[in-house]
Specification:
The chain is globular. The chain folds into two domains: 16-78 and 152-225, no CATH class; 79-146, no CATH class. The chain has 237 residues and is mainly α. The longest helix is centred in the last third of the chain and has 23 residues, at 158-180. Strands 1-2 form a two-stranded antiparallel sheet. Helix content is 54%, strand content 3%. It has helices at 19-33, 36-55, 61-74, 79-87, 90-98, 133-142, 158-180, 186-192, 204-225, and strands at residues 106-109, 127-130.
Length: 237
């Protein structure tokens, strides 16, 4: 039984973290997601943005937007990540904590290599697979080092190509934004580099979210090229 002085440790949300904490948290996640090389790639871009913002006398809002949104793009939820999440120990611990005795496990999945029917939203329809999938998941999780290489068996799907394009486009956007960064473009830059937060779901749902984000991007890109003039300061008499 807990005493009145005991406290339950509640993990911080990203919103409650400092910029340094966000970078450390996301770097650890990217290392688990793939490897230290991906985390180093992430850290290098965030540092570039952070240094540029500091040199211009800006705060942490722009580098924070990049620290959160670039990590989101890099760690897209693919087949390797699903397999890792089911086999990193947390899923099995949850089962042991919630169920006693004998029970059966089934996974509702829509493996892209098997094709199949679509659901009402046009997404691949899920099928039930038994507990025999766990050994397959363990093997697939180890294969995540192949992600994005010529040996990536899932890399040619439309979703994976879209996700790689989003990452490459984001990196180009960062480079361009830093080349034109000023007090007049700062707010627009922050919104552009926060657009990945709007992208959710998978299949047609994700495609629609990407299309909406790109429509907003077009508007913001025009503002970035022709920023509105700074409001005129009127001296009080």
């Amino acid at each position: 039984m807990m005493s009145g002085h005991d406290e339950v440790s509640v993990p911080k949300t990203l919103d409650a973290m400092s910029l340094d904490e966000v970078i450390a948290h996301r770097s650890a996640h990217l290392t688990d997601y793939q490897n230290a090389k991906l985390a180093a790639r992430y850290q290098a871009l965030v540092k570039q943005v952070r240094d540029a913002a500091r040199d211009r006398g800006f705060g942490d809002e722009l580098p924070r937007a990049v620290a959160v949104n670039y990590a989101k793009l890099l760690a897209y939820k693919d087949e390797y990540e699903v397999a890792r999440l089911f086999t990193d120990g947390r899923f099995e611990k949850q089962l042991r904590d919630q169920f006693d005795g004998d029970f059966k496990i089934s996974f509702n999945l829509a493996p892209p290599l098997l094709g199949g029917a679509k659901d009402a939203l046009g997404r691949p329809k899920k099928r039930a697979f038994g507990a025999w999938m766990l050994p397959a998941f363990r093997l697939l999780a180890k294969m995540r080092v192949l992600r994005g290489t010529a040996f990536d068996i899932f890399g040619h799907s439309a979703d994976r190509r879209l996700e790689r394009d989003l990452i490459a486009g984001y990196e180009k956007d960062v480079a361009h934004i830093l080349s034109v960064l000023s007090p007049l473009t700062l707010d627009t830059a922050i919104e552009i580099l926060s657009l990945p937060d709007r992208i959710r779901g998978y299949g047609p749902v994700k495609e629609k979210a990407v299309a909406d984000a790109k429509a907003r991007y077009a508007q913001l890109a025009a503002d970035l090229a022709n920023p509105p003039p700074a409001p005129r300061q009127i001296a009080a008499e």
